[in-house]
Amino acid sequence: MCGIYGQLNFNNTAKIDKELIKKKVASIIHRGPDDEGYHFTESLAFGFRRLSIIDLAGGHQPMSSNDGHIWVIFNGEIYNFPELKKELESYGHTFQTKSDTEVIIYGYKQWGVDVFNHLNGMFGVAIWDDIMKRLIISRDRMGIKLVYYRIDNGIVTFGSELRTLYLFEKEKPEIDIESLNLFLRYRYTPSPRTIFKGISKLAPGTCLIVENNTCNTHRWWKYKPVVKKSAIKINEVKEELLDLYKKSMKRHLISDVPVGLLLSGGLDSAMLLGLMNEYGKSWDTFTVGYGKNFADDELDDAARTASLLGASNGQVHIDKQDFEDSLPQVISFLEEPIASASIIPMFFVCKHARERVKVALIGQGPDELYGGYKRHLGVMYGKYWRAIPQPVRNQLKRILGSIPRAESIKRGLYSLDVSDRMQRYQQVFSINTEDVVDGLFHEGHLRDHAGDIILDCWEDLSELMEQTDELGGFQFLEIRSSLPDELLMYADKLSMAHSLELRVPYLDKEIVEYVETLPESLKIRCGNQKWIHREICKKYLPAEIVNRKKRAFAVNVVDDWFQNSMSSKFSQYLDDPSSLIYRYLKYDSIKQLNHEHQTRKQDNYKILFSIIVFEEWLRSFYI
Questions:
Q1: Predicted confidence band at 252 (pLDDT cuts at 50, 70, 90)?
Q2: 406: confidence class by pLDDT, cuts 50, 70, 90
Q3: Cβ-contact 99, 55 below 8 angstroms
């Protein structure tokens, strides 16, 4: 895991400024404190910061082919590199190191751009083909690693972090009002957009190709799942999935430095620990908690899981003061505003883990793959709601709509009423209605239906999900949009803030592509969420772990802290007409949202937290 930055003057005669390149690379030293490297020509610059994980002595980058024709900088891990290396050696390629980076070089020589379809791993990578004068920049299929890029005046610049594209420049980039609208509507900014005009991020499973004075993006991961419709043998599915879990774990434990686990009190990370025990013992695990005053505190459950499975458990406690004090720093590391309640605990548990290990596994993925969120129940059973005659539905909506602080129910019923599939999914993702979010903006600043831009971001995915069922189609988008651009994005940024590599075994290519062929009836059965995953875990984990009630990681705790903070620091942000948010948003509209929330007439926590995050982000960016 590392940090990359590069520049190509593909249609501009200006020479590379080496000192500027080195300054930009130095800005991401937290991503790679162990080593640095550069490759320069008159029109090309590759810069690299390394966090040494595999082949500690021989993995220096930028790395080139033996003949010097191909150059690579690479952030991430290729888990199937031993198999690929053997295959490429059989084709006559000669390797000089034990590093996974080298399989990208010779994989490109063998397969061209299709090399990415051969890689099983997480990566943000740039390849320079000196013969073809071609630059290829790519993001892994699950979007675990990020790549930002900017094309301006015949120059393309790119990097693992957004800061590399604007630091040390004459002017700061301008905020994109439409992207701000997307953030307030969905809590994140979907690829390929960013919060800034003129700066993009590659969507998962896509690449940017620069050659012949042109720049084009290309989706290389075109997996099109076909849901199994014939008789399914449940025991076979369990065996096949468990086998995939074990193989993925074996791959994800490849490392020349210590590996640990971020352990919650829940099922998914416990299953990872059980799988880790197939390949070793006495693992280090790390848990964040908030004190026993909160029902959602997971410290006792995590400690019990670790004890049952023979692992150590390091714990870190955070409180409301930590939340308030750390929010500005956390947001500065995020670089783009993300309004997830989990960003603060993630920051602290990664900091704690880095004191013991350099690599940690994390249990993200099963909720999206198997339907673990409340919204999945709505998507799964929405067809029954739509089958109710419209007059009856209207009456029910009026009754349910009168319930105070039930915004999630109101939004859910509205979204399930939408007949168009993609628009229905869009409404499920939305944390608030179009009229509320758009009504926050100053008149004339926003085009009509700006929130619908997310449909453009999904445009080339609709054909690939044609043969999915209702729940599977929503999950298809979730895995390619909200998961990478929200959860995985902040996991990458906040772990690398502490020079910690996070790996995500459940998002192994083989697991994801297998699960996407399963019918929704195996994911949610009679209201039981993540059913098939839970069935596998039953045979692998003690019953007391499997039967634990799912806790909302951080959400309820942070909501409580936020509610209390609204009487002091955060309330001052909203009450002060000179706050930076009011350059873009209307004071009276936000005041009304806050009043409704404080008087408990409406539950506006999500939108208010998003606005506070945006204010903190503006202060970190402009001040």
A1: very high
A2: low
A3: yes
